Amino acid sequence: xxxxxxxxxxxxxxxxxxxxxxxxxxxxxxxxxxxxxxxxxxxxxxxxxxxxxxxxxxxxxxxxxxxxxxxxxxxxxxxxxxxxxxxxxxxxxxxxxxxxxxxxxxxxxxxxxxxxxxxxxxxxxxxxxxxxxxxxxxxxxxxxxxxxxxxxxxxxxxxxxxxxxxxxxxxxxxxxxxxxxxxxxxxxxxxxx
Length: 193
Description:
The structure is a single chain. By secondary structure, this protein is α+β, with helices and mostly antiparallel strands. 26% of the residues lie in helices and 21% in strands. The strands form two sheets. It has a three-stranded antiparallel beta sheet. Strands 4-3-6 form a three-stranded mixed beta sheet.
């Protein structure tokens, strides 16, 4: 937001995978058959334009958080890199999955940043209770405290990876991360398996 805070969400307790964990603002999967299109060509990835991934992000910001596209124009979204990870869900307790069960994720994530030009609490949101239990705007120091193992909070594996490897460097140089290609890495797929 305008105060350089990050919007976090706590995933809904009813989610099949990673319920009730804290994580990044939102996640999406690029879908075929969407308008605008969400599948990026190799040349779009190589250039870092990634309009497909950005379109998917705009769609999911609306679906999960009720954030209107006018508050996050697609051209304000910055692609930074990609992450390929695999993680077992150690927390889910559903009739179809015992604790430490077989559900999990094996994904390629496109890491996107956007800065809304207003203070977070003034950003109109209509949170989808099927997706999210809570939201919180945090500074970098607040996030570090929240992620401290003694906090008792649970975190999505993908967000832990991003925070530990990249986030604080990007956040500490946010203007460059958003307005230059200093941190854009189109050639690497960071693998965490």
